[in-house]
Amino acid sequence: MDPLTVSSLMEVMKEFFPPNASVAVSDHEKFIYYQPSRLVDLHICAGDPIKKGSVTQQALTEKHQVSTYIDSDVYGIPYYAMSVPIFDHHQLKGAVTTIYPAKPSPISRNLLTIKAEDRWYPIPYSDVMYLESEGRKTKVQALSGNGYHKLNLTELEFMLPDDSFIRVHRSYIVNVHFIQEIQPDSHSTFLLIMKDRTKIPVTQTYASLFRKLLNY
Question: Is the pLDDT of residue 158 over 80?
């Protein structure tokens, strides 16, 4: 990947990333672009090697999206990040990593607070069936009803417990405990029938990881 091209592209796309996130782009060995946010800065420079134990290194090694918390041993400060590997004709080329500043509190690791009809409702993660992107907000469908969270789907993804939630589409994250059926939709995609009978597609981008995580 040409660093100048990547830099120009990221300048155009940066408005689509969360404002409190730093963004890094790497090839398979080193970083070629980095934009820190006001709230978190790992002090990465273009040309720096990818550190062992970082989220970027994990995504490149495992060849699928990784969202996790990293302690201060790697970059001197703790952070959350999501890294997505980049492929060109099935060949690994690099990764895009978004880096977030704060570890969620113990309370926020168990509850998601949504807004509906000018009121706020704390919802346990175990009651959330799926989340759907709607512009810069996220629609949350829970057992008790639905509402909206102010963060977008990408920002929420790194906060959700990864033993229950999985991204299956650019617009959807589902709680695997509410999947009733998995139907083939084509040779490489699937259609999820949730327990409330909502149909949610699993796109090709996420199909391989989905099958791996659900062990089939």
Answer: no
Query: Which comes out higher in pLDDT, residue 75 or 102?
Result: 75
State how many domains the chain has: 2
pLDDT score recorded for residue 37: 84
Q: Residue 56 corresponds to which tokens in the numbers above?
A: 């970027």
For residue 157, the model assigns a pLDDT of: 81
3-state secondary structure the chain: CCHHHHHHHHHHHHHHCCCCCEEEEECCCEEEEEECCCCCCCCCCCCCECCCCCHHHHHHHHCCCEEEEECHHHHCCCEEEEEEEEEECCEEEEEEEEEECCCCCCCCCCEEEEEECCEEEEEEHHHEEEEEEECCEEEEEECCEEEEECCCHHHHHCCCCCCCEEEEECCEEEEHHHEEEEEECCCCCEEEEECCCCEEEECHHHHHHHHHHHCC
For the full predicted model, state whether its pTM sits above 0.70.
no
- Domain boundary among the residues 67, 100, 133 is at 100
Domain containing 164 equals 111-214
Position 139 scores a pLDDT of: 96
Give the domain CATH number at 33: 3.30.450.20
